[in-house]
Amino acid sequence: MELEDAPFILKLLNESAFLEHIGDKGVRTNKDAEKYITDGPAASHIEHGFGLDVIEFKFDLTLVGICGLLRREYLSDPDLGYAVLADHQRKGVAFEACNMILETARLNHIRKVLAIVSPRNNASVRLLEKIGFSGRTEIDIPGSTNPDDLYFKMLTPTDT
Questions:
Q1: I need a labelling partner for 95 at 20 to 30 A (CA). Which of 49, 64, 67, 102 fits?
Q2: pLDDT, average across residues 26-36
Q3: 3 to each of 10, 29, 30, 33, how far by Cα in Å?
Q4: What is the mean pLDDT of residues 136-160?
Q5: Is residue 26 part of a domain?
Q6: What is the mean pLDDT of the chain?
Q7: DSSP string, 13-77
Q8: Are 151 and 132 in contact (CB under 8 A)?
Q9: What CATH number does the domain containing 142 carry?
Q10: pLDDT grade for 29, boundaries at 50, 70 and 90
């Protein structure tokens, strides 16, 4: 994710599904989006070696979503996060991106990945189950008024 992705990030973070299921990040301008990129995904990549990346179509480089691992203070393991623009949902974009992130995590010797999802977000629940997440438990996220569900996936070690 680069600073020039700010207009895309601004649009994605203000879509109704993002606001409803993920939350309001307070990003209202391109400047806010640049700060979000710098303080969030870019800082995470520097500090943890992973973070959110943009998802783009190979054939025309159109930005359609974000996907990656997040480190949250209140979780013991990395958390898989993703969001796709409404116009590009239900096309397998999140499925493919999440599988790529999980394979990269496995190759980097991460053994367990968590995922937080709103129980009302049926599409994300189905996706997590489809890519092998299980063990749903309720979790209270700091600062949130509604409980979410926490899933996990164990990754098999690499041979190298």
A1: 49
A2: 98
A3: 11, 13, 9, 8
A4: 85
A5: yes
A6: 94
A7: HTSHHHHHHT------SHHHHHHHHIIIIIHHHHHHS--EEEEE-TTT--EEEEEEEE--TT-SS
A8: no
A9: 3.40.630.30
A10: very high
In a domain, 126, yes or no: yes
Quickly state the pLDDT bin for 13 (edges 50, 70, 90): very high
> What is the torsion angle, in degrees rounded to the nearest 10, for the CA atoms of residue 90, residue 145, residue 70 and residue 128?
-40
pLDDT in tens, 132-142: 999 889 998 88
Tally of domains in the chain: 1
pLDDT in tens, 52-88: 999 999 889 999 999 999 999 999 999 999 999 999 9
Mean pLDDT of 119-140: 93
Is residue 50 within 8 A of residue 68, CB to CB? The reply is yes
Burial class (CB in 10 A: 0-12, 13-18, 19+), 104: middle
**Residue 159 in domain:** no
Residue 3 to residue 68: CA distance in whole angstroms: 17
Q: What does the alpha-carbon distance between residue 56 and residue 59 come to, in Å, rounded to a whole number?
A: 9
Q: Is residue 160 part of a domain?
A: no
Cβ-Cβ contacts under 8 Å for 50 (sequence gap 6 or more): 44, 68, 69, 71, 78, 104, 105, 108
- What's the number of CA atoms in the CB half-sphere (13 Å) around residue 142? 4
